Amino acid sequence: MATRESVPRSKRRATSPKAQGRRSELLAIAAELFATKGYTQTTVRDIGDAAGILSGSLYHHFDSKEAMLDEILRDFMGSLHAAFAEIVAGGESPRQVLEGLVRCSFGTIHERPHAVALYQNESALLAHLPDFTFVARTSQDITGLWLGVLAAGQESGDFRADLEPGVVYRFIRDSVWGAVGWYKPDGKLAHSTLADQYLTMLYGGLLRA
Amino acid sequence: MATRESVPRSKRRATSPKAQGRRSELLAIAAELFATKGYTQTTVRDIGDAAGILSGSLYHHFDSKEAMLDEILRDFMGSLHAAFAEIVAGGESPRQVLEGLVRCSFGTIHERPHAVALYQNESALLAHLPDFTFVARTSQDITGLWLGVLAAGQESGDFRADLEPGVVYRFIRDSVWGAVGWYKPDGKLAHSTLADQYLTMLYGGLLRA
Amino acid sequence: MATRESVPRSKRRATSPKAQGRRSELLAIAAELFATKGYTQTTVRDIGDAAGILSGSLYHHFDSKEAMLDEILRDFMGSLHAAFAEIVAGGESPRQVLEGLVRCSFGTIHERPHAVALYQNESALLAHLPDFTFVARTSQDITGLWLGVLAAGQESGDFRADLEPGVVYRFIRDSVWGAVGWYKPDGKLAHSTLADQYLTMLYGGLLRA
Amino acid sequence: MATRESVPRSKRRATSPKAQGRRSELLAIAAELFATKGYTQTTVRDIGDAAGILSGSLYHHFDSKEAMLDEILRDFMGSLHAAFAEIVAGGESPRQVLEGLVRCSFGTIHERPHAVALYQNESALLAHLPDFTFVARTSQDITGLWLGVLAAGQESGDFRADLEPGVVYRFIRDSVWGAVGWYKPDGKLAHSTLADQYLTMLYGGLLRA
DNA sequence: AATGAATGAGGATTCATTCAT
DNA sequence: CATGAATGAATCCTCATTCAT
C-alpha cells in the first residue's frame, strides 16, 4: 500500500551539490510548460528554449522527457500524500480534519499550480503509460485518507449519513482540484478566502437556512 | 461548356443523404479515442483502424484530424448550450432551474461522455489552437446562463447571499463535470441517482442539520 | 526517324461520335491547368473540379493523368511538325521559308498557348518520363527542318556564313517560343505584329544601319 | 535564472562559423536536383540521399523544402541584380553596356546553371507560391535596367528606333536565358564564344550585309 | 457517364534521442 | 556542461487510381 517505492538507481543521476539546483530549475520550467501546453504538446525543444539551452543538453540532466514528468509527479504525489497524512494524523475532529484537507488542497493549488494541473489534466495519458502506475496508487492512498475522515464524520454524527462517502469524496475532490483551472495565484481572490467559501458551501449548502 | 468555377474545398462536404451516417460513425469513433487516449495521442491511424479503413481514407470525409475535433466539439457545445438555454427559458423558480441544469449535466455525461471528457481534458490544447475560440465563447455563454440563475436565486432569497455567484458556479461546474472522469454509464449508480446526491449536497450541505 | 508511331490500341478508347467532343473538352481543360500550374502541381481533382465532375470520373475517358498529357503533347507535336514540314516543302526561298516558320510559330503560340507552354516548361519532367521520348524525337525532326533551311540560306548567300546553324537555330527557337511566357492572346499586340518585329530583329539586327 | 524568451523559429539559424559551409553544400545539391528533376519532382529524400544524410536531418539546417528554394532563388536573384546594376552604372555607351549585360548573362549561365534553370523553368510554380513574390519583383527591377539601356541606345541613335524596347528586351532575354537549356558548361563551345555569336546576331542580324 | 467510398503508396515534416567534439 | 549534426521512427496528409453502384 505504500507509495514511496525507491527509484531505480540507473535513473537518478549523481546528485552533485549544485547540480540539484539546476535540475530543479529545469523541472520547474518543464512543469510549467507541461501544465500550460500539455505534456505531449510540449517538445523537449520548448523546454530547452525556455531554459536557454539546446534540447539535446537536457539529456545531460535527465534520461528522457518522460523521466522529467516522472520526477515532477513523483515529488508532487509524495508531498501531497505526506501533507494529507499528517493532517489526518493530527487527531482532530472529522470536521476539523476535513477542513484541514480542503485548506491544504487550496494551499497546494496556490503553491504548486503546475503540478496540480498536470495531475488533473493528463489522466488520459497517465493511464496509458506503464511507468506511471504510482500516480494511481498514491491517488488511491489519498482517497483512503479522505474516505476515512468522511466515514469517521458520519459515525460521529458530524456529517449527514444519507450520502455515500465515495460520492461525497469525488464531489469534494473534483470541485476543489478543479479550481486549478481558473484560480489566479496573484489575483485578488486569496486562496484562503476561496477555501472559506468552498467550506461554507460544502458544509452548509447553497440554500438559505 | 462545363462549369468551371472551383468550389472552395472546405465547403465541398455536401451533406449527401447517406453520407451523414458514415460521418457520424467516424466522428463517434474519433470522439471515443480522443477522450480515451487524448487528442494528440490519438493518431489518424488509430481512428482508421478502429473504423476498419485506412487512415488516408478518413480524408475523404474530413479535411483533417483537427476538423474532426472541431465538428465533435462544435456539435457538442451547440447542443449543450441549447439544452441549457431551454431549461433557463422554462420560467421556473431559480431553485428548480438550477436543479434542471444539474440534472441535464448528468444526463449529458451519461449520454455523451466522450464529448464531455474532451471538453474537460483538452483545455490546454484548445487554448492553443486558434480555430477553437468558439469553445471558449460558448463556454462563456453557458457561464452567463448559470450566473443568471444564481443571481436570480440570491435575489429571490432562495440561495444564500454571502457567496460570490462566480465562485459558486465554478464550484458546481467543476464538481458536476468532474464526474465524467469516474462515472460509469453502465454501472449500478444511475446518473439520476447521482444527480440526486449531488443536489442534496449542493443544496443542503454536508453537515447534519 | 518518323514521328507518328501509332498508339497502342489498349490505350485509346472507342471513339463514339460525341464522346470525342467530351474528350477534347477535358483535354483542353487539362492543358490549361497543366500549363498554368504545372503538370505535377495539377491534381486530377483540379481537372475534375474544372470540368464539373469528380476526379474518378475522368478515368472513364482516360487511362491516367499521364495519358492525358500524352494525348495533348502527341497531338501538338504532330500538328506542329506537320505544319513546319508543309512550309518547308513549299519550295520558296530560304528567307521566305524561315519567315514562314517564324510566323507559323507565333500563330501557334496564339492559338495553342497551353500546349506550347507545356512543351516549353515541362522539359525536366519529360526527360524523366520513359513514355515521352516521342517528344524529344519529334523535337529533333523539327530541329532538322530548321537546320535545313538555315543551311540552305547560308549556301544561297541569303544568310551570313560566320554563324553556326545550330546556334542560330537555338537562338531563334528560344526567343520565339519564349514569347509564350508573356504574349497575351487578347492583348493589343497582335501575334502577326509581334512576328514582324521579331523578323525585323532577326534579319536586320538591333543596330542602326 | 535562465533566459526564457523563446527565439522565433525562423530566425534561429544563427550563421555559425562552419555551419555556413554545410548549408551551402546542401543548397548546391538541392539546386542541382531542383533544376534537373523539377522542384516538385524532387523529394527531400532525394536531397538527403544525394547529401548522404537522412531526409529528416535536412530540417536541422532548413525550415522546409520551400525554404531551400527560397534561399537559392533569393541569393541568385540578388547577385544577378547586383551584377547587372554594376554594369549599368559603369557609364559606358549603351552598346557597350548591352554587350556587358549579355556577356554577364552567359557568364551566369556558365557558373550557376542550376539557379538559372530554376528561374527559367519554375515560373508556373513560383507564380502560385505566395512567398515568392520577391522573384517577380526583382525580375521587374532587372527588366527596368535593360529597358533603360535600350531606351538610351535608341535615344543616342545606336539602336534602331522602329522597335519597341519591351519587345526587344523580351527577345534578348528569352534567347539568352534559353541557352541554359542546352549549353554544356564543359562542352567545346565556350560561353564567351557563345556570347560572341549571340551579340553578332543581335547587333547585325542574320542577313548578309 | 458519373458517383463516392476506399486504397496504397509516397511525401513533407516533427521530434525524442544519441554522440562526437 | 553544452553544442550541433545526425538518426530513425512516427505523424499528418496527398493523390492517382479502382470499383461497386
Automatic annotation (TrEMBL), chains A, B, C, D:
Signal peptide: none
Transmembrane segments: none
GO molecular function: DNA-binding transcription factor activity; transcription cis-regulatory region binding
Region (Disordered) residue spans: 1-22
Family matches, as InterPro entries: Homeodomain-like_sf (IPR009057), HTH-type_TetR-like_transc_reg (IPR050109), HTH_TetR (IPR001647), KstR2_TetR_C (IPR041490), Tet_transcr_reg_TetR-rel_C_sf (IPR036271)
Sequence ranges assigned to domain HTH tetR-type in this UniProt record: 20-80
Domain of life (superkingdom): Bacteria
Residue ranges of DNA binding: 43-62
Alphabetically ordered keywords of this record: DNA-binding, Repressor, Transcription, Transcription regulation
Name of this protein: Transcriptional regulator, TetR family
